[in-house]
Amino acid sequence: MKEHKHPVIRNLIIDIICTGIALVVFALFHHVLPRQQQSLGIVISNPNRVTEQAGDESGYAWQENALLLASSGASDSPLTVPSQLSAKGGRGSGGRGGSSGRSGGSGGSNSKGGSALTDTDSSATTSPETDATTETDEEMADKFADKYTDTVVVSDNSYTSPNVSITVTKETAGDVTYYLADIYLRDITSFQSALANDTYGSGFRDSISDMAMLNNALLAVNGDYYGNTNEGVVIRNGVIYRANKTSCDVCVLYYDGTMRVIPGSSFSVEEAIADGAWQAWTFGPALLDTDGSVLTSFSSTGRIISANPRTAIGYYEPGHYCMLVVDGRGESAGISLPDLSQLFYELGCTAAYNLDGGNSSIMVWQSEIINQPSGGGRESSDALLIAEVSSYE
Hints:
- The chain is α+β, with helices and mostly antiparallel strands.
- It has 2 domains: about 1-30; about 95-385, no CATH class.
- The chain has helices at about 5-30, 60-70, 135-145, 210-215, 270-275, 300-305, 335-345, and strands at about 35, 40-45, 155, 160, 165-175, 175-185, 190-195, 200, 215-220, 235, 240-245, 250-255, 260, 275-280, 310-315, 320-325, 350-355, 365, 370, 380-385.
- Helix 2 packs antiparallel against helix 5.
- The longest helix is centred in the first third of the chain and has 26 residues, at about 5-30.
- The protein is globular and about 85 Å long.
- It starts with 6 loop residues before the first helix and ends in a 6-residue tail after the last strand.
């Protein structure tokens, strides 16, 4: 029998092949296949309404308990949450209904958008309760009364009802095409989030169209693709799923209708609970500074800063918002972060925030995708929705 002349090389090749197979299996189980994750499961009460629920488990006492839990610090490890405060099984409502949540599809972005704010920004220390511009639920409901209609009125580019007003326009500026949804809400709970498969975890993905349809959404855009990382803050429809450390800016929408963008290093889960956070996303960066002025410097990679398809949200004042999707990598050239900042400034927003972009950038209006997604679009782990919270005959 002929002896092998190079047994060491042969064994080395076998070891490399086995290691490669092991790494592929590890990636499949930990990054590709859907996997439910542990959720903090803290439910945040609306601080503007808890006074009417004194003594009720879902009112002030519930909020107080959550504050005590949060004081232990939610950074790298989950908090221990009593069963009465848990979102069972780590699952949460994706609006008013579930989601089919097909798994699979292409992955999300490799990195988050980064930061444009610093710890010295006033947004890190000013809470909605002390902000002179903060309005109560009643003021938010009445201020834009002329935007609503007594009955549901629908056209090709608008929808109005007693509680919601949306107008969608397609705009072209040079070689850039974008879709802008101007939104007025009487009730902030019409501004919802959906989780793919109605489940908090990694690897769960669904199309924005399906998440919109299964949650009866009037309007939907992709979110921050939270399932692509374990980093950052995830608050959806008043439930804190995750509050881990992040270097990215965090956008928080509160029950009172205000929206703030906070440096990730300054985010406090205790303040989020006390101030009544309704939604929070981690991607970024902020697109306007704390005074609502244009930003020209961003702590992000050059690939993210340069012209790309974009999804972003803007805030004017409590009850008035916008969603914007920019097409790119085709007939439309996309838009850079500095130019996107300038656009939101010209729109008159006082705060704006960049969400996942690229192939993820999709806007669904009245059950149809209205933009031209790059690469045909891709599924995502979450979506932002505008939906009715009241029914009309």
